[in-house]
Amino acid sequence: MEREEFTGHADGLWDVDIAQLFGAPMSHGGNEPPMAWAHGKPPPPRRDPVYEELPNSTGLSNQDISYERKKSRAKITRVEVNAGFDDLLAALRLPNSRKNSRAKIIQYACERIRALESENERLKQQLNATPVHHTAVATTSAPTSLQPNGTTMLWIPCSITPLVSQPPPRLVQLPKAAIPFNKKPRKTSKTVMATTSSSNLMALVDTCPHVLRFFDGVMLTRIAQSCSEWKRLIVDGKLAYLWEALIQQRWRIPKDEVLLLTRSFTAMYHKWKYLDQSMLLPRGAFTMDESVVAMGRAKGVDLWGVLARRSNSRTTRSVWRDGALSVMQIVELRLVVQNMSSQPVSPTLVSIGVHPFQVLDASYGGHFQPRWIAVNGVKCSIADDSVVLHHMDFGVVSVYVSCPHIEFEEVFLSSARMIQMHCGRGTGSVSIEAQFFNPNREVELGKHHA
């Protein structure tokens, strides 16, 4: 082994003259031998560079020295964070100027993530819609006229020189009876899902996890499904505070009660996912300890049907109409609407229908007219379509349904089929349908308030 191989590890150990080491007398005085560390003597004490740089360090107290050390470490951390932002600027192809503040850089990075996710979904749909063909045999040169056929092909260049130099194999004829013929099943091509590799944005999220606050729970769940690395980062226990805040914001649950929800799940991410799948009713006015009889969701809008039960469970009410008092069978339903999409929605009260019954309008009196009775958990009284629900906002609409010849509420629930509502969103509209529960099975209402 040559001498240069040890220069990076020995720090001048091989520069000592061997003859000088054998010929030097044993010194017992104050001079330290050249290799004192080899005889078991402790190395000299390590010096603190931060302590040495301080002016008049001998006159400073321990508190001042600790403060200066913290300042030095904070400076190092600040330099590393600035370097990370410089890398992110390079990845995003943004100019490094004073106008590009950190908030703008993070906002632009989030917009790029949303654009990449939409592009990924578009490519997935295009890949699934394209018919699958058989992969052609790869040659030594990549064909230029080959068009993409909907499958993922891997071209590996290989040399054909050994194949040409070898003699052609001899053909041996065997009797036909000795050749078994087994028809192999046709192999189907597998669709390779697109994955997201590690990037500077991943490093930024590791350095500053607060970037994920720009996303809601639905968006974070979709990002976690893109690749295993994002899933590991988002499901990490260090982000439990983020999922806890999302639970409080969506379902209006106090912080001390979040841990009591779904005790079978310890991670906050799994708690949020379970509550989203079970469609927990957000807490607020007219939604506390109520009986949910119907639920449904469509295009980011959730709809619940809550029955306003009476003490005697009867549907008979007195209605004053056209100057006369009449007796009718009426049931009050409270419809809870929550917007989970990115665009604001405006529910239309006139479009509400409860099939196969009739919803009462203003002709039966102002008391039976459909109206908003709560918005974001606060009581109100609004009889028009001026209410606009933004992201994670929810409201409660009170409607009265006429059910002739039905005297009890349970009979009404067994006859009702569906609740329908239309909401305006941008230039279009969204139709939400909430199916009533099957009356033949016992509905576990406790899971919505557990």
From TrEMBL:
Region (Disordered): 24-48
One of the record's GO molecular function terms: protein dimerization activity
InterPro entries per the UniProt record, alphabetical: HLH_DNA-bd_sf
Name of protein: M96 mating-specific protein family
Organism of origin: Achlya hypogyna (Oomycete)
Species classification: Eukaryota, Sar, Stramenopiles, Oomycota, Saprolegniomycetes
